UniProtKB/TrEMBL annotation:
Pfam family, one: Fibrinogen_C
GO-annotated cellular components: extracellular region
Biased composition (Basic and acidic residues): 41-51
Ranges for domain Fibrinogen C-terminal: 106-327
Keywords: Coiled coil, Disulfide bond, Glycoprotein, Secreted, Signal
Protein name per UniProt: Angiopoietin-related protein 2-like isoform X3
Listed Gene3D superfamilies: Gamma Fibrinogen, chain A, domain 1
Keyword Glycoprotein: yes
Localization per Swiss-Prot or TrEMBL: Secreted
Organism: Branchiostoma belcheri
Region (Disordered): 31-59, 84-121
Length: 332
């Protein structure tokens, strides 16, 4: 606005000067006209056509200048001021500053705690994956994830597949775990406790005989307590087609050849040649001796067996213990 006001004042002053010029030019034009009338014929007689032409040009320019001044004087001031005013840049409204959202910090990607997490992350092929157990997230644990057994996302905690791994081991070995997730494997009692100790898991035991016939047992809850209770077993209700050979071991502490925690007068691990939640002694012995071919001969029932299905004298071809979260555990 200040620049526009100054421009208008300048134009007003200029127009005033132009009005004075108009009077001067009018007088000059009248003087030139009189001279042309007096000397025009004389100039023509002497052949001074250039002088006459120049005077005519001066007179013409004077007329144009007077015409311009008359345009300005005859209401032209307002027109000029209007044109100048309209040519000035119009003040633009200040852009409205919208509050910018604060950048949100990127949250660390959640680490899979079990195979159901891995399944939800888009993996659908059975294989070895790494999970991160509660209170031990800095040390990933390799496990076999069964994505084929409905509904998938099963974390395998024990597997007997080919008899290449010795399962007749001491307490330290059963506590830490051993074997290869691709074959014979034991996750480890401490890892089982970290995985299931807060509850919210179910157990499925799948088995196969040497004729290719399969069966399963499922328990709607499964929990392994801490070492202070000797990794005591807590089981829920059974359903399946193999017969229930696990409930008899419910609430039992774990026993190995060097840590006898079963209620039997002797050490069941010594008779059964493995480590298990022995009662007195076993209806199932999934960590026993792997005998190829099925039926075996031994002083004791020390094979890999599920008594309610093929009996204690039949060594199974494959066995797999696997857990899966239930309820809220399955959804988080």
């Amino acid at each position: 606005m200040e620049n526009q006001t100054a421009t208008i004042a300048t134009l007003t002053k200029l127009v005033g000067g132009l009005s004075r010029d108009k009077d001067d030019l009018t007088r000059q034009l009248q003087d030139v006209t009189r001279r042309m009338k007096k000397g025009g014929r004389h100039g023509d007689r002497h052949g001074d056509r250039g002088t006459g032409t120049r005077r005519a040009q001066v007179a013409s320019e004077a007329v144009v200048r007077i015409g311009d001044i008359e345009d300005v004087d005859d209401g032209g001031v307002e027109a000029v001021i209007k044109r100048v005013t309209e040519s000035q840049p119009k003040p633009q409204p200040k852009p409205e500053l919208k509050p910018q959202p604060k950048p949100q910090p990127k949250l660390p990607k959640a680490k899979p705690r079990h195979c159901a997490d891995i399944q939800r992350g888009g993996k659908s092929t059975s294989g070895v994956y790494r999970i991160y157990l509660p209170d031990h997230e800095d040390a990933p644990v390799p496990v076999w994830c069964d994505m084929d057994t409905d509904p998938g996302g099963w974390t395998v905690i024990q597997k007997r597949a080919n008899g290449t791994v010795n399962f007749y081991r001491n307490w330290a070995a059963y506590r830490a775990g051993f074997g290869d997730p691709r074959g014979d494997f034991w996750l480890g009692l401490e890892n089982m406790h970290r995985l299931t100790g807060r509850g919210g898991y179910k157990l499925q035991v799948s088995m196969e005989d040497w004729n290719g016939i399969v069966a399963y047992a499922e328990y709607n809850s499964f929990k392994i307590e801490g070492e202070e209770s000797k990794y005591r077993l807590r089981l829920g209700k059974y359903h399946g087609n193999s017969g229930d050979a696990m409930t008899w071991h419910n609430n039992m502490a774990f026993t190995t050849k060097d840590s006898d925690n079963d209620p039997f007068i002797g050490n069941c691990a010594g008779y059964q040649r493995g480590g298990w939640w022995y009662n007195a002694c076993a209806h199932s012995n999934l960590n026993g001796i792997y005998y190829p071919g099925g039926y075996y001969s031994s002083r004791y029932q020390d094979a890999v067996y599920w008594a309610e299905w093929r009996g204690g004298s039949y060594s199974l071809k494959t066995v797999m213990m696997k857990v899966r979260p239930t309820g809220n555990q399955a959804l988080t």
